[in-house]
Amino acid sequence: MWLPLLLQAVSFFSSPVLSHDDHHFHPRSQQTVVSDPTLSINGIPFSTRAYWMRQANLALGKPCPFAAFGTVIVNHTGSSELGELVCTGANSGSTTGNPTLHGEMSAIANCTRILTDPSGPYKLSPSEASAAFPRLSLYTNAESCPMCASAIRWAGFREYVYGTTIDALVAKGWGQIRIPSVEVLRQSFDLPNPSRLVAGVLTNETDPFFFWQYDPAYPCPKGCARVGGTCQAA
Ligand SMILES: [Zn+2]
């Protein structure tokens, strides 16, 4: 039984599943990292960054979920000065059973669905949707894990903006894969569409969403109170 299966596997992997067009080789294209989030970047002022980071917090849909990782995906290349919300995502691993559904992965899946919805506002073909991601900005209230940072690079987002750092999550007791996003970006130079990383935006507002879970002395996020050691909506 195993031989036909093996042959099938070989022919699958030797068939041109991915065309060369999907994997342009680019010389070391520069990823840009901005570590002072108060700077105006790509002509977008800090107040606009703060607005969208607050929307990433609101994408959670409730005040103090345990895995409080929220994302919004925004178009800053259109005519709107503030930018246009394309989709949101929240960590939904525990509600769906899919452990890969971090906030960023949920948002990318939601955006793909919205961009290609034949009765939605964009009505893009799959190839048009793929081509749209490099014009979009992803805001996440915490630095992406290597899975999500890699997904951000595969999508080719124009900008990747995060709040709370992986280092801060680790310091507060979160298990993390300790590869910073800047390293994932640095190692993704073969991919087209370099992404600009804007780090540490509005951490004074994003940190409280992540600092209470493993620290009983840390106050609950606004609108929540300690009930039996965990923060719950008041
Ligand atoms: Zn992740």
Please tell me about this protein's structure.
The chain has 234 residues and is an alpha/beta fold. The protein has one domain (25-233): Cytidine Deaminase, domain 2. Helices cover 33% and strands 17% of the residues. It is built from nine helices and eight strands. It starts with a helix and ends with a strand. The model is unreliable at 1-27 (pLDDT under 50). The structure holds zinc ion.
Task: List the main descriptive attributes of the protein structure presented here.
234 residues, alpha/beta, Cytidine Deaminase, domain 2, six-stranded mixed β-sheet, 9 helices, 8 strands, 33% helix, binds zinc ion
- Provide the CATH topology: Cytidine Deaminase, domain 2
Spatial order of the strands in the main sheet? 1-6-5-4-2-3
* Average pLDDT: 88
Number of strands: 8
Helices, by number, come to: 9
Per DSSP, what share of the residues sits in E-state strands of 2 or more residues?
A: 15-25%
What is the string of SSEs from the N terminus onward? Answer: HEHEEHHHEHEHHEHEE
Q: Please mark out the parts with pLDDT under 50 across 5 or more consecutive residues, or reply none.
A: 1-27
Query: Approximately how much helix is present in the residues?
Result: 25-40%
**CATH architecture term:** 3-Layer(aba) Sandwich
Structural class: alpha/beta
For this structure, what is the CATH homologous superfamily?
Cytidine Deaminase, domain 2
Largest sheet: 6 strands, mixed
Rg on CA atoms, Å: 19 Å
Heterogens: zinc ion
Give the CATH level 1 class.
Answer: Alpha Beta
Q: What distance lies between the first and last C-alpha atoms, to the nearest angstrom?
A: 59 Å
Q: State the domain count.
A: 1
Shape field: globular
